[in-house]
Amino acid sequence: MKITFKLNGRDEEWEVEPGANLLDVLRENGHTEVKRGCDTGDCGACTVLVDGVPRSSCTMMAGQAQGREITTIAGLGDALDPHPLQQAWVEVGAVQCGFCTPGMILSAKALLDEAPMPTEDQIKDALSGNLCRCTGYVKPIEAIKLTATRLNNDKGVTDA
Questions:
Q1: How do beta strands 53-56 and 47-50 pair?
Q2: Which of 13, 82, 95, 139 has its CA 20 to 30 A from that of 4?
Q3: Residues 35-88: pLDDT tens digits?
Q4: What order of strands is seen across the sheet that includes strand 47-50?
Q5: How far apart (Å, rounded) are the C-alpha atoms in residues 133 and 43?
Q6: What is the CATH number of domain 84-154?
């Protein structure tokens, strides 16, 4: 079956098998930045944004992407032009093994889009679907707080 959708801001039309999940289809089409983890939607490694909402691509059927906007970590930025979250992740040392990083950053982006100056509890809740064995979540939380502060200062917003 054919699906048309936006992927990282570009219009796409792909032929997919009816029973294929989005994770497999993305990876088969070169998007290896979407990581394979548990294949049950529990670890967050395969997180993508679907119309701005974090989703496990391993549990989403590819056909469900029809007419949607899908964003992978590659759609946020790259080494030469990183998204502020990616920059903060590097600056505070939140990137360790890096396996969970794409899913965590995408979950954080969705959070900041909804709550520009989130509380620590909101941050923890947003990251609750992303498992990490390296960081203990301290550095990713710090990176999200740093990004929120920077983005809000750029807009003239204060947290007072």
A1: antiparallel
A2: 82
A3: 999 999 999 999 999 999 999 999 999 999 999 999 999 999 999 999 999 999
A4: 10-15, 2-7, 69-71, 47-50, 53-56
A5: 11
A6: 1.10.150.120
Token digits for 141?
């939380």
Find all residues with CB under 8 Å of 158, minimum gap 6, and list them.
Answer: 152
Question: Is this structure's pTM higher than 0.85?
Answer: yes
Phi, psi of 65, deg, nearest 5: -80, -10
Amino acid in the structure at residue 96: Q
Q: Return the sign of the alpha-carbon dihedral for residues 121, 125, 127, 131.
A: positive
pLDDT tens for residues 106-151?
Answer: 999 999 999 999 999 999 999 999 999 888 899 999 999 999 999 9
Task: For 61, list phi and psi in degrees, rounded to 5.
Answer: -70, 145
Q: H or E stretch including 74? A: none
Strand partners, 56: 47
Specify the amino acid at residue 23: L
Q: Alpha-carbon distance 102 to 137, whole Å?
A: 14
Asked: is 2-75 a CATH 3.40.190.10 domain? The reply is no
